[in-house]
């Protein structure tokens, strides 16, 4: 009896081990480039402000690719789509190495955005692999915690590595290292992750739904990017946002009538899904939207403008490193907090920690010690949410829609981050710091707005989770 039971456990452990390698590559991608963006701008002979276009392009790609790739995973198998997305990410990474110009580099950076679907696909692989164990949700949460912990540790390694190498190596060599890591990741998935056979659901690919979704997201994201570039006084970005929002109405109606939709709006409306997806959207405002304002605030000289930490680049790296360490702590301790508080209690507590962490910035932002404390509190909650949300979405979805459900947590998180990023840019631009960082500094009120929005968004997520039926985040639906 013991031998029979232990074989699947060893097989699952091996699969998680190989998927950890994927998340290590993902962490390198997410941490490696940030410290050297100025050096990249110099090598491409562009202004530092133009680097914002890299982020915008990748956010658009990320928001667009997750739903179709997640659906494709449910159709043909999650491993196959993981391989496909890794190939696209590797191509994008190598384009960065040889890119001769800004436009070519922008294309490569956008292609790299395919990596955002890795974690949802991995959670879906594990969730499907643990079917029949009687501990499917528990094993999935534990594995997700390990994966996210590995991801966050790799972010630190990536950031420290690029900062150490950029002064002693040529830019193509520096950029080749993450490309090599992603290529090795492709080999790991091919040989290490067992084939999962055909998808868990039959049916065709919803091209009409994909077209309607792409149009809506492209219009909204284009409008938000326009707000960052042209400012809130220009009418055309607002028109794009309104057209994109209006396009969601026919999209939702079409998907609700479709037998095999690209986005299962009926599933998203179930009591087990909408609180998780709404939490991911609200969480994206802080975890994706607030990082650049935090970095610029830390670099602001208090002797010149009366606020800021006056930090140099090395301390900003330290601040990021501390934040990521506490992200990893939050992810690794998720199984313990879930055991103590339950799945829903762990989600609520994590959201409250994020809210408290950013609320602390409002009165406490005058010293490095206060900044480290604030980011530590927010980091623990953020790490737990990053690990818990895909697992909660999978547990609240029928078996044939786990890839879609987990993928949507990343999609909604990305959209939340994009919206918040635009709002924060407007809040910080009143003194001209977005358009011309040299001539002006953002007002302190702009930073207070950023922190208040992050705190309120996380608090709203906690309230939503606390008020939903107890069985929703815990029990599978269908």
What does the model show?
- There is one protein chain.
- The chain is mainly alpha-helical and 478 residues long.
- Helix content is 76%, strand content 0%.
- It has 19 helices and no strands.
- α12 (274-287) packs parallel to α18.
- The protein is globular and about 60 Å long.
- Mean pLDDT is 80; it is low at 1-10, 430-440 and 471-478.
Tell me the Rg in angstroms. 21 Å
Q: What characterizes the major β-sheet?
A: none
Q: Average pLDDT, to the nearest integer?
A: 80
The amount of helix comes to over 70%
Number of helices: 19
Assembly level: single chain
* Strands, total number: 0
The ordered string of helix (H) and strand (E) elements is: HHHHHHHHHHHHHHHHHHH
Low-confidence stretches: 1-10, 430-440, 471-478
- Residue share in β-strands: under 5%
Q: Structural class per helix/strand content? A: mainly alpha
Overall 3D form: globular
| N-to-C span | 31 Å
């Amino acid at each position: 009896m013991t031998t029979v039971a232990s074989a699947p456990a060893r097989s699952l452990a091996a699969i998680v081990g190989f998927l950890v390698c994927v998340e290590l590559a993902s962490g390198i991608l997410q941490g490696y480039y940030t410290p050297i963006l100025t050096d990249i701008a110099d090598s491409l002979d562009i202004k530092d402000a133009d680097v914002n276009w890299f982020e915008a392009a990748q956010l658009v790609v990320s928001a667009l690719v997750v739903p179709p790739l997640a659906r494709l995973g449910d159709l043909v198998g999650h491993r196959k789509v993981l391989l496909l997305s890794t190939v696209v990410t590797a191509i994008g990474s190598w384009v960065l190495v040889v890119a001769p110009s800004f436009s070519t580099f922008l294309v490569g950076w956008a292609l790299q955005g395919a990596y955002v679907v890795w974690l949802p696909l991995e959670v879906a692989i594990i969730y499907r692999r643990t079917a029949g164990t009687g501990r499917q949700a528990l094993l999935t949460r534990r594995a997700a915690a390990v994966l996210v912990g590995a991801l966050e540790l790799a972010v630190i390694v990536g950031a420290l590595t690029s900062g150490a190498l950029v002064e002693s190596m040529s830019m193509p060599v520096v950029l080749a290292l993450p490309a090599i890591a992603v290529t090795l990741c492709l080999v790991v998935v091919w040989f290490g992750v067992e084939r999962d056979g055909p998808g868990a659901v039959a049916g065709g690919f919803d091209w009409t739904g994909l077209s309607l979704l792409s149009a809506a997201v492209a219009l909204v994201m284009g409008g938000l990017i326009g707000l960052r570039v042209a400012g809130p006084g220009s009418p055309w970005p607002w028109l794009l946002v309104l057209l994109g929002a209006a396009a969601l109405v026919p999209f939702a109606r079409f998907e609700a009538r479709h037998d095999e939709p690209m986005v299962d709006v009926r599933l998203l409306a179930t009591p087990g899904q909408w609180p998780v997806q709404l939490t991911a959207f609200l969480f994206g405002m802080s975890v994706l939207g607030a990082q650049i304002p935090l970095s610029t605030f830390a670099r602001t000289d208090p002797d010149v403008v009366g606020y800021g930490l006056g930090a140099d680049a090395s301390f900003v790296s330290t601040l990021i490193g501390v934040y990521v360490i506490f992200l990893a702590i939050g992810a690794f301790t998720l199984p313990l907090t879930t055991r103590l508080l339950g799945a829903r209690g762990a989600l609520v507590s994590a959201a409250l920690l994020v809210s408290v962490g950013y609320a602390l910035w409002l009165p406490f932002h005058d010293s490095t010690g206060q900044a480290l404390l604030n980011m530590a509190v927010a980091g623990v909650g953020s790490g737990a949410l990053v690990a818990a949300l895909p697992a909660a979405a999978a547990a609240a979805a029928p078996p044939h829609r786990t890839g879609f459900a987990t993928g949507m947590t990343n999609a909604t998180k990305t959209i939340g981050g994009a919206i918040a990023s635009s709002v924060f840019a407007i809040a910080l631009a009143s003194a001209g710091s977005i358009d011309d960082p040299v001539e002006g500094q953002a007002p302190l009120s702009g930073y207070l707005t950023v922190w208040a929005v992050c705190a309120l968004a996380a608090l709203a997520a906690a309230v939503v989770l606390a008020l939903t039926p107890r069985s929703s985040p815990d029990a599978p639906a269908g």
